[in-house]
Amino acid sequence: MTRFEEFVRDEYARGRSVHALTTLTGRSARSISRVLQAGGDSMRGIGEQGGGVVVGFGDARSRRLSKREELATLLHACRVHAQLSGRVAGERAGMSQSKVSKLENSRIVPKVSDVLRLVEGYQVSGEVKERALRLAEQVAEEARHREAVLNRTESRAQAQVARAEQAAEVIKVYAATAVPALPAENTKTRSVRVVVPEGVARCPRQGNRIRTADGGKVQFGVLPFASLEAGADTGFRVLDDRMVVVELLSGSVVITDREDVRSHVAYFDRMHDLARVGREMWELMGWNCA
Protein backbone atom coordinates (compact mmCIF):
# COMPACT_ATOMS: atom_id res chain seq x y z
CA MET A 1 0.00 0.00 0.00
CA THR A 2 1.41 3.40 -0.97
CA ARG A 3 1.53 6.35 1.43
CA PHE A 4 -1.16 8.06 -0.64
CA GLU A 5 -3.49 5.04 -0.38
CA GLU A 6 -2.83 4.71 3.34
CA PHE A 7 -3.56 8.41 3.88
CA VAL A 8 -6.83 8.27 1.91
CA ARG A 9 -8.14 5.19 3.73
CA ASP A 10 -7.15 6.49 7.17
CA GLU A 11 -8.70 9.93 6.61
CA TYR A 12 -11.88 8.43 5.15
CA ALA A 13 -12.19 6.16 8.18
CA ARG A 14 -11.84 9.25 10.40
CA GLY A 15 -14.82 10.88 8.67
CA ARG A 16 -13.40 12.85 5.74
CA SER A 17 -15.70 12.93 2.72
CA VAL A 18 -14.53 12.05 -0.79
CA HIS A 19 -14.87 15.71 -1.75
CA ALA A 20 -12.71 16.81 1.19
CA LEU A 21 -10.05 14.25 0.22
CA THR A 22 -9.94 15.57 -3.34
CA THR A 23 -9.20 19.03 -1.91
CA LEU A 24 -6.53 17.71 0.47
CA THR A 25 -4.69 15.55 -2.07
CA GLY A 26 -5.28 17.33 -5.37
CA ARG A 27 -6.49 14.03 -6.88
CA SER A 28 -9.80 13.45 -8.64
CA ALA A 29 -12.85 12.01 -6.89
CA ARG A 30 -12.58 9.00 -9.18
CA SER A 31 -9.01 8.32 -7.98
CA ILE A 32 -10.09 8.61 -4.34
CA SER A 33 -13.06 6.28 -4.87
CA ARG A 34 -10.87 3.70 -6.62
CA VAL A 35 -8.48 3.59 -3.67
CA LEU A 36 -11.35 3.11 -1.23
CA GLN A 37 -13.06 0.45 -3.32
CA ALA A 38 -9.79 -1.42 -3.92
CA GLY A 39 -9.17 -1.46 -0.18
CA GLY A 40 -12.60 -2.89 0.53
CA ASP A 41 -13.83 0.25 2.29
CA SER A 42 -17.60 0.59 2.45
CA MET A 43 -18.67 3.83 0.75
CA ARG A 44 -20.84 5.91 3.07
CA GLY A 45 -24.18 7.32 2.10
CA ILE A 46 -25.09 11.00 2.20
CA GLY A 47 -25.37 12.28 5.75
CA GLU A 48 -24.17 8.96 7.19
CA GLN A 49 -21.87 9.11 10.18
CA GLY A 50 -18.16 8.41 9.79
CA GLY A 51 -15.80 8.72 12.74
CA GLY A 52 -18.24 10.95 14.59
CA VAL A 53 -18.53 13.41 11.70
CA VAL A 54 -21.59 13.92 9.52
CA VAL A 55 -20.41 13.62 5.93
CA GLY A 56 -22.12 14.76 2.78
CA PHE A 57 -23.11 18.18 4.13
CA GLY A 58 -19.55 19.51 4.24
CA ASP A 59 -16.48 19.01 6.41
CA ALA A 60 -16.18 21.83 8.92
CA ARG A 61 -13.62 20.48 11.38
CA SER A 62 -10.76 22.76 10.38
CA ARG A 63 -12.82 25.76 9.23
CA ARG A 64 -16.38 26.80 8.57
CA LEU A 65 -17.39 26.16 5.01
CA SER A 66 -19.17 28.91 3.13
CA LYS A 67 -22.70 28.18 1.97
CA ARG A 68 -21.38 27.91 -1.57
CA GLU A 69 -18.73 25.36 -0.58
CA GLU A 70 -21.25 23.46 1.51
CA LEU A 71 -23.62 23.23 -1.45
CA ALA A 72 -20.78 22.13 -3.74
CA THR A 73 -19.82 19.38 -1.30
CA LEU A 74 -23.43 18.24 -1.02
CA LEU A 75 -23.93 18.10 -4.80
CA HIS A 76 -20.76 16.06 -5.20
CA ALA A 77 -21.79 13.68 -2.43
CA CYS A 78 -25.22 13.22 -4.02
CA ARG A 79 -23.71 12.32 -7.39
CA VAL A 80 -21.20 9.89 -5.86
CA HIS A 81 -23.97 8.26 -3.82
CA ALA A 82 -26.08 7.91 -7.00
CA GLN A 83 -23.04 6.30 -8.69
CA LEU A 84 -23.29 8.62 -11.69
CA SER A 85 -20.47 10.08 -13.75
CA GLY A 86 -20.35 13.81 -14.35
CA ARG A 87 -21.35 13.25 -17.97
CA VAL A 88 -24.45 11.21 -17.11
CA ALA A 89 -25.43 13.64 -14.35
CA GLY A 90 -25.15 16.51 -16.81
CA GLU A 91 -27.24 14.72 -19.41
CA ARG A 92 -30.00 14.07 -16.88
CA ALA A 93 -30.01 17.69 -15.75
CA GLY A 94 -29.70 19.18 -19.23
CA MET A 95 -26.28 20.75 -18.67
CA SER A 96 -22.68 20.06 -19.65
CA GLN A 97 -20.28 17.86 -17.71
CA SER A 98 -18.08 20.94 -17.33
CA LYS A 99 -20.88 22.82 -15.59
CA VAL A 100 -21.50 19.92 -13.21
CA SER A 101 -17.79 19.95 -12.33
CA LYS A 102 -17.76 23.72 -11.77
CA LEU A 103 -20.79 23.49 -9.49
CA GLU A 104 -19.15 20.70 -7.47
CA ASN A 105 -15.92 22.69 -7.16
CA SER A 106 -17.65 25.94 -6.19
CA ARG A 107 -16.30 27.73 -9.27
CA ILE A 108 -19.62 29.24 -10.33
CA VAL A 109 -22.68 30.52 -8.50
CA PRO A 110 -25.43 27.92 -9.00
CA LYS A 111 -28.96 28.76 -10.03
CA VAL A 112 -31.70 27.26 -7.88
CA SER A 113 -33.18 25.68 -11.02
CA ASP A 114 -29.84 23.97 -11.80
CA VAL A 115 -29.63 22.52 -8.30
CA LEU A 116 -33.23 21.31 -8.52
CA ARG A 117 -32.58 19.46 -11.80
CA LEU A 118 -29.43 17.85 -10.41
CA VAL A 119 -30.89 16.56 -7.14
CA GLU A 120 -33.99 15.29 -8.92
CA GLY A 121 -31.70 13.36 -11.27
CA TYR A 122 -29.89 11.90 -8.27
CA GLN A 123 -33.21 10.79 -6.72
CA VAL A 124 -32.24 12.00 -3.26
CA SER A 125 -34.50 11.99 -0.21
CA GLY A 126 -36.89 14.85 0.46
CA GLU A 127 -34.70 16.04 3.34
CA VAL A 128 -31.56 16.23 1.19
CA LYS A 129 -33.47 17.91 -1.64
CA GLU A 130 -34.84 20.54 0.74
CA ARG A 131 -31.35 21.12 2.17
CA ALA A 132 -29.83 21.57 -1.30
CA LEU A 133 -32.50 24.02 -2.44
CA ARG A 134 -32.26 26.04 0.77
CA LEU A 135 -28.49 26.32 0.33
CA ALA A 136 -28.94 27.33 -3.31
CA GLU A 137 -31.30 30.13 -2.30
CA GLN A 138 -28.87 31.32 0.38
CA VAL A 139 -25.96 31.27 -2.07
CA ALA A 140 -27.96 33.29 -4.60
CA GLU A 141 -28.82 35.84 -1.91
CA GLU A 142 -25.17 36.10 -0.82
CA ALA A 143 -24.09 36.60 -4.42
CA ARG A 144 -26.45 39.56 -4.79
CA HIS A 145 -24.86 41.23 -1.79
CA ARG A 146 -21.24 40.25 -2.43
CA GLU A 147 -18.79 43.10 -2.18
CA ALA A 148 -17.41 42.77 -5.68
CA VAL A 149 -17.34 45.76 -8.01
CA LEU A 150 -16.66 45.54 -11.75
CA ASN A 151 -14.55 48.48 -12.91
CA ARG A 152 -14.85 49.51 -16.55
CA THR A 153 -13.99 53.19 -16.16
CA GLU A 154 -12.27 55.46 -13.65
CA SER A 155 -14.23 55.12 -10.42
CA ARG A 156 -14.00 55.26 -6.68
CA ALA A 157 -13.29 51.53 -6.69
CA GLN A 158 -10.22 52.04 -8.87
CA ALA A 159 -9.01 54.76 -6.53
CA GLN A 160 -9.60 52.38 -3.62
CA VAL A 161 -7.43 49.73 -5.30
CA ALA A 162 -4.67 52.25 -6.02
CA ARG A 163 -4.60 53.36 -2.37
CA ALA A 164 -4.63 49.76 -1.15
CA GLU A 165 -1.71 48.85 -3.43
CA GLN A 166 0.30 51.82 -2.21
CA ALA A 167 -0.32 50.89 1.42
CA ALA A 168 -0.06 47.09 1.14
CA GLU A 169 2.87 45.50 2.95
CA VAL A 170 2.42 42.00 1.50
CA ILE A 171 1.23 41.37 -2.06
CA LYS A 172 0.55 37.90 -3.47
CA VAL A 173 0.12 37.56 -7.22
CA TYR A 174 -1.00 34.64 -9.36
CA ALA A 175 -0.01 35.61 -12.91
CA ALA A 176 -1.96 33.30 -15.21
CA THR A 177 -0.85 34.77 -18.54
CA ALA A 178 1.96 37.31 -18.06
CA VAL A 179 4.32 38.76 -15.47
CA PRO A 180 2.53 41.76 -13.92
CA ALA A 181 3.83 45.24 -13.24
CA LEU A 182 5.49 45.28 -9.83
CA PRO A 183 5.10 47.93 -7.09
CA ALA A 184 7.37 50.96 -7.28
CA GLU A 185 10.33 51.08 -4.92
CA ASN A 186 8.85 54.00 -2.97
CA THR A 187 5.78 52.07 -1.79
CA LYS A 188 5.42 50.52 1.67
CA THR A 189 5.47 47.02 0.24
CA ARG A 190 7.84 44.72 2.11
CA SER A 191 7.15 41.46 0.29
CA VAL A 192 5.86 40.53 -3.16
CA ARG A 193 5.33 36.86 -4.02
CA VAL A 194 4.48 36.02 -7.61
CA VAL A 195 3.52 32.57 -8.93
CA VAL A 196 3.49 31.98 -12.69
CA PRO A 197 2.80 28.78 -14.68
CA GLU A 198 5.84 27.23 -16.35
CA GLY A 199 4.34 27.91 -19.77
CA VAL A 200 4.38 31.65 -19.05
CA ALA A 201 7.91 31.58 -17.62
CA ARG A 202 9.23 29.83 -20.75
CA CYS A 203 8.17 32.71 -23.00
CA PRO A 204 11.49 34.54 -23.61
CA ARG A 205 10.18 38.00 -22.76
CA GLN A 206 8.41 36.83 -19.59
CA GLY A 207 11.41 34.77 -18.53
CA ASN A 208 13.67 37.81 -18.87
CA ARG A 209 11.33 39.85 -16.67
CA ILE A 210 11.36 37.12 -14.01
CA ARG A 211 15.17 36.84 -13.99
CA THR A 212 15.52 40.61 -13.75
CA ALA A 213 13.00 41.13 -10.95
CA ASP A 214 13.56 38.00 -8.82
CA GLY A 215 15.36 38.76 -5.58
CA GLY A 216 15.12 41.13 -2.64
CA LYS A 217 11.55 41.81 -1.64
CA VAL A 218 10.28 40.17 -4.84
CA GLN A 219 10.11 36.38 -4.93
CA PHE A 220 8.98 34.54 -8.05
CA GLY A 221 7.81 30.95 -8.14
CA VAL A 222 7.22 28.81 -11.24
CA LEU A 223 4.41 26.25 -11.22
CA PRO A 224 5.83 23.22 -13.10
CA PHE A 225 3.97 21.50 -15.92
CA ALA A 226 4.11 18.34 -13.83
CA SER A 227 2.47 19.90 -10.76
CA LEU A 228 -0.42 17.96 -9.25
CA GLU A 229 -2.89 20.82 -9.63
CA ALA A 230 -3.65 23.00 -12.64
CA GLY A 231 -3.59 26.73 -12.14
CA ALA A 232 -6.52 29.14 -12.43
CA ASP A 233 -7.45 30.56 -15.82
CA THR A 234 -7.54 34.14 -14.53
CA GLY A 235 -4.82 36.03 -12.71
CA PHE A 236 -5.36 37.86 -9.44
CA ARG A 237 -3.46 39.68 -6.72
CA VAL A 238 -4.09 39.70 -2.98
CA LEU A 239 -3.32 42.82 -0.95
CA ASP A 240 -2.49 42.18 2.72
CA ASP A 241 -4.94 39.24 2.72
CA ARG A 242 -7.77 41.82 2.84
CA MET A 243 -8.54 42.61 -0.79
CA VAL A 244 -8.38 40.61 -4.03
CA VAL A 245 -8.16 42.16 -7.49
CA VAL A 246 -9.05 39.78 -10.31
CA GLU A 247 -7.90 40.85 -13.76
CA LEU A 248 -10.33 40.55 -16.69
CA LEU A 249 -10.09 41.71 -20.30
CA SER A 250 -12.77 44.33 -19.66
CA GLY A 251 -11.48 45.56 -16.33
CA SER A 252 -10.94 44.34 -12.79
CA VAL A 253 -13.12 42.73 -10.16
CA VAL A 254 -12.42 43.97 -6.64
CA ILE A 255 -13.30 41.50 -3.89
CA THR A 256 -13.42 42.39 -0.21
CA ASP A 257 -15.85 39.74 1.03
CA ARG A 258 -13.94 37.90 3.76
CA GLU A 259 -14.84 34.38 2.68
CA ASP A 260 -13.98 35.06 -0.96
CA VAL A 261 -10.68 36.69 0.04
CA ARG A 262 -9.82 33.70 2.23
CA SER A 263 -10.52 31.28 -0.63
CA HIS A 264 -8.18 33.22 -2.94
CA VAL A 265 -5.48 33.35 -0.26
CA ALA A 266 -5.79 29.59 0.30
CA TYR A 267 -5.61 28.96 -3.46
CA PHE A 268 -2.50 31.14 -3.83
CA ASP A 269 -0.79 29.48 -0.87
CA ARG A 270 -1.51 26.05 -2.39
CA MET A 271 -0.06 27.14 -5.73
CA HIS A 272 2.98 28.65 -3.99
CA ASP A 273 3.61 25.37 -2.16
CA LEU A 274 3.62 23.56 -5.53
CA ALA A 275 5.83 26.16 -7.23
CA ARG A 276 9.62 26.07 -7.51
CA VAL A 277 11.28 29.12 -5.98
CA GLY A 278 14.83 30.40 -5.64
CA ARG A 279 17.58 28.10 -6.94
CA GLU A 280 15.06 25.32 -7.66
CA MET A 281 13.17 27.65 -10.00
CA TRP A 282 16.34 28.66 -11.83
CA GLU A 283 17.38 25.02 -12.21
CA LEU A 284 13.92 24.04 -13.49
CA MET A 285 14.10 26.76 -16.12
CA GLY A 286 17.71 26.01 -17.04
CA TRP A 287 18.84 29.52 -16.17
CA ASN A 288 22.36 30.35 -15.07
CA CYS A 289 22.30 30.63 -11.26
CA ALA A 290 25.67 32.36 -11.07
Automatic annotation (TrEMBL):
CDD domains: HTH_XRE. It comes from Actinosynnema mirum (strain ATCC 29888 / DSM 43827 / JCM 3225 / NBRC 14064 / NCIMB 13271 / NRRL B-12336 / IMRU 3971 / 101). One of its GO terms (molecular function) is DNA binding. Residues 91-128 form the HTH cro/C1-type domain. It comes from the Bacteria. Pfam families: HTH_31. This is Helix-turn-helix domain protein.
